[in-house]
Write a structure and sequence with these properties.
Bound molecules: phosphoenolpyruvate, magnesium ion
CATH topology of the largest domain: TIM Barrel
Shape: globular
Helix content: 40-55%
Number of domains: 3
Number of helices: 23
């Protein structure tokens, strides 16, 4: 048995296919005709970009828009003038295209690697992937195409790059095992959304496994078993079948209302990154959109999206949801969400810096473009505005004043909008949690952002493995905070939802029911499972469990208690 990191749940059983790195060696040589060499480079770059665009289009169909954007981002990076200018000038100096590409891209890769931020680490991996693609084009080497693998293949590879992931035929791949990479890498995100069981960072696995061996990929535990004996294989086959059966049993919850065992109505919503994600939300039977991360619109654009562009995107979602609530979060820039053309200053502590609502209030003209687009879209459905990273009442008032200004402008221009549009907040900082009573008087709804709330409460960066043990929703400090937020929202009579990952945690859901959470917002594949869990708990039973959970002193005790009670 080989241990690694569990990056995508589920059990996959199949035949090993070891994917070797392509031979991209070459002899550096001096060039005399620099113009011809630059043309050769441009031709390779063009083919690379066209191929990557095809992969992005394919991914949009098969996995999702956010994943396709990762590939589209490769095209932008590959054409970045900083990199191409440097390559051209090296070729002008007599270096061959291959060498100019390798040296320049390695310099950029190392620069990104030296930066701590997780975004930059991802960028470094993207550059390495781009280098492989263009170099293969220059050398005429065929890269691995994972679309042709036979059914039930277990891919074993040193590093699964996003471009390799883009060629995967998910119906033929039982599992993926890599030697490097972690749960937050782009490839991990892609395999997770494609629902392929995967274990990453299993050291030396390419040397140990051979083509044709049988392997079990236990993506839930993060282990790989090679050539299992008959008992182990039988045991895992039963477990894999149970997972499949559970998935198909969940179909019974399709089209049903989301209610607790004692009939209390809840709302099951989805988190999306753009209009194209609505199809998956509806496909998985979501009743609302609990979080539209609008920053994706900004990230995929080369410049600030205009009011009209934003309006079209928001209207599309509002119309597709046919009157069901659509909560759109205003620009949550900064921290781990970088938008290059905003040229924001590098800060020592970006997660506590100039970001999200702080940036928006400080740039009111730019912010009003988004608020006007949201107001205009509110004429086409139940659009609600959500403010990210709130820490004080002043921020909510400042945003509401800007909304009022926009409304007055639209009135003057005779443009329609919903005058009753709700303006709510993400509660994702300890400060907001501590003044939840005050904020509930200002905001029309709360949505708890546990991804950030856990991090800020526990002072634990979610991307830092060394303190990964502290990044957990089960710590009493986090639970008390969540309880406080929900109870204050309920007391003030406003809707309280949760759009952080914890909303989809079956262990936590009874506690959320006990405290009165109304909306649970999550990624599309979790919706039916959450509807089932909610149906299994009455408020009284959930309250009994919550009381016990609040007495626990440690996260382990809480988790053990909730696991024991899980249905
Ligand atoms: C959160 O912080 O819980 C959240 C939903 O927002 P994001 O993950 O986009 O920061
Ligand atoms: Mg957040």
């Amino acid at each position: 048995m080989y241990e690694g990191r569990n990056v995508s749940e589920g059990i996959g059983i199949g035949t090993v296919v070891v994917v070797s790195d392509p031979d991209l060696s070459f002899e550096p040589h001096a060039v005399e005709d620099a113009a011809a060499e630059k043309e050769r480079y441009q031709a390779a770059l063009k083919v690379f970009c066209e191929r990557t665009q095809q992969q992005a289009d394919h991914m949009k169909e098969t996995v999702g828009v956010a994943e396709a954007e990762i590939m589209a981002g490769h095209i932008i990076l590959a054409q970045d003038p900083g990199m191409t200018d440097q390559i051209n000038s090296m070729i002008d100096g007599g270096t061959c295209a291959e060498q100019a590409l390798v040296e320049t891209s390695t310099m950029f890769e190392n620069m990104f690697k030296s930066m701590e931020d997780e975004m930059f680490q991802l960028r470094a991996a993207d550059i390495a992937d781009i280098r492989t693609g263009i170099l293969a084009e220059l050398l005429g080497v065929e890269l691995v195409d994972l679309s042709m693998l036979p059914k039930d293949s277990v891919i074993v590879v040193h590093d699964l790059t996003p471009s390799m992931t883009a060629t995967i035929n998910k119906d033929h791949v039982a599992g993926v095992v890599t030697e490097v990479g972690g749960p937050t890498s782009h490839s991990a995100i892609i395999v997770r959304n494609a629902e392929i069981p995967a274990v990453f960072s299993v050291s030396n696995i390419c040397a140990v496994l051979r083509d044709g061996m049988t392997a079990i990929v236990d993506g839930s535990k993060g282990v790989v078993i090679a050539d299992p004996d008959a008992d182990v294989l039988a045991d895992y086959t039963v477990r894999a079948e149970a997972i499949r059966a559970e998935k198909s049993a969940l179909e019974a919850f399709r089209g049903k209302e989301t209610v607790t065992a004692d009939g209390i109505k809840k709302i099951l919503a989805c988190n999306i990154g753009g209009p194209d994600d609505v199809a998956a939300a509806l496909d998985h039977d979501a009743e609302a959109i609990g979080l539209f991360r609008s920053e994706f619109l900004f990230m995929e654009s080369k410049e600030l999206p205009s009011e009209e562009e934003q309006f079209q995107a928001y209207r599309k979602v509002a119309s597709a949801m046919k009157g069901a609530p659509v909560i759109i979060r205003t620009l949550d820039v900064g921290g781990d969400k970088e938008i290059p053309y905003l040229h924001m200053q590098k800060e020592d502590n970006p997660f506590m810096g100039y970001r999200a609502v702080r940036y928006c209030i400080d740039n009111p003209d730019q912010y009003k473009v988004q608020l006007r687009a949201l107001l205009r879209a509110s004429a086409f459905g139940d659009v609600k505005i959500m403010i990210p990273l709130v820490t004080c009442v002043e921020e909510v008032r400042a945003v509401k004043a800007l909304v009022a200004e926009c409304k007055a402008e639209l009135d003057d221009e005779g443009i329609k909008y919903n005058d009753e549009i709700e303006v709510g907040i993400m509660v994702e900082t300890p400060a907001a949690s501590l003044i939840a009573d005050k904020l509930a008087q200002e905001a029309d709804f709360f949505s708890i952002g546990t991804n950030d709330l856990i991090g800020y409460t526990m002072c634990a960066d979610r991307g830092n493995d060394r303190i990964g043990n502290l990044y957990s929703v089960y710590y009493p400090a986090v639970l008390r905070s969540i309880k406080n937020i929900i109870e204050n929202g309920v007391k003030a009579g406003i809707m309280v939802g949760m759009c952080g990952e914890a909303a989809a945690d079956p262990l936590l859901e009874p506690l959320l029911i006990a405290w009165g959470l109304e909306e649970f917002s999550m990624s599309a594949p979790s919706v039916l499972r959450a509807r089932k869990t909610i149906s299994q708990w009455s408020k009284a039973e959930a309250e009994e469990l919550a009381e016990k959970a609040l007495v626990c002193a440690t996260a382990d005790e809480v988790k053990a208690l909730l696991s024991e009670a899980a249905r």
